[in-house]
């Protein structure tokens, strides 16, 4: 019964994505201005195309919240970010302050709970300097991704719940027919349960030049020969 309900939720979400898929304009290739000021994970662009970019990340590490069940990505991200902000301000085992980085990720997956709620994990990119020994903190855990391939689409402005569905659908649509499309469907090594990830590069106090991204992680086995 629970499994059926979950499938039904997923079906409606997916149908919604397909129907609304083709509307928005593709954007890729914008360097987030905040990455000139604060540390961002390095990546290589493997392919830039009409509406998507394929990036290779070399083993980024993240400090992540426990899953947050909510109907709103925006609200869940705010709640998660507050925990992570406390963490970098020194609310951690070593009372250590950690430099701000970008992006903040929100990993989205279907929730086990009732009512078609969604499960969100919010993450902070751990600076290279702290990756050897990131201080622990209650309620947070480290994610080590290993080599990661992501299909990426960019959009601007403040992230809204509605945009996220639309931009994700557009990213799927742009990948259709490409050699990457099958790799999305296979479970990615980094995180088998995440459906898609939203990356945000700006603080809530910046109003211009805001850069956000949808990431779909790809199965890397074929590409890296793993
Ligand atoms: C998000 O949070 C705001 C402020 O707490 C609230 O008014 C709003 O209803 C929430 N949105 C959703 C979709 O839950």
UniProtKB/TrEMBL annotation:
Keyword entries, A-Z: Signal
SUPFAM superfamilies: Probable bacterial effector-binding domain
Record's keyword annotation contains NAD: no
Protein name, as recorded: Heme-binding protein 2
Database matches in Gene3D superfamilies: Regulatory factor, effector binding domain
Membrane-crossing residue ranges in chain numbering: none
Similarity remark: Belongs to the HEBP family.
Record InterPro entries: Reg_factor_effector_dom_sf, SOUL_heme-bd
């Amino acid at each position: 019964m629970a499994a059926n309900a979950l499938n039904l939720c997923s079906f409606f979400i997916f149908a919604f994505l397909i129907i609304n898929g083709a509307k928005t304009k593709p954007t890729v290739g914008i360097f987030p201005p905040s990455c000139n000021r604060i540390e961002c994970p390095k990546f290589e662009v493997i392919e830039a195309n009409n509406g998507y970019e394929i990036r290779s990340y070399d083993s980024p590490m993240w400090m992540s919240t426990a899953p947050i069940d909510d109907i709103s990505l925006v609200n869940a991200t705010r709640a998660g970010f507050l925990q992570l902000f406390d963490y970098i301000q020194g609310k951690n085992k070593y009372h250590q302050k950690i430099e701000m980085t970008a992006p903040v990720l929100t990993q989205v997956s279907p929730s086990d709970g009732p009512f078609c709620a969604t499960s969100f994990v919010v993450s902070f990119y751990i600076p290279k300097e702290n990756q050897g020994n990131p201080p622990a903190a209650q309620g947070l855990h480290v994610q080590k991704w290993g080599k990661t391939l992501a299909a990426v689409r960019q959009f601007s402005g403040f992230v809204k719940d509605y945009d996220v569905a639309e931009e994700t659908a557009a990213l799927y649509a742009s990948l259709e027919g490409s050699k990457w499309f099958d790799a999305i469907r296979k479970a990615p090594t980094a995180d088998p349960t995440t459906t898609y990830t939203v990356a945000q590069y700006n603080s809530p106090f910046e109003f211009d030049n805001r850069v956000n991204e949808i990431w779909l992680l790809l199965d890397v086995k074929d590409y890296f020969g793993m």
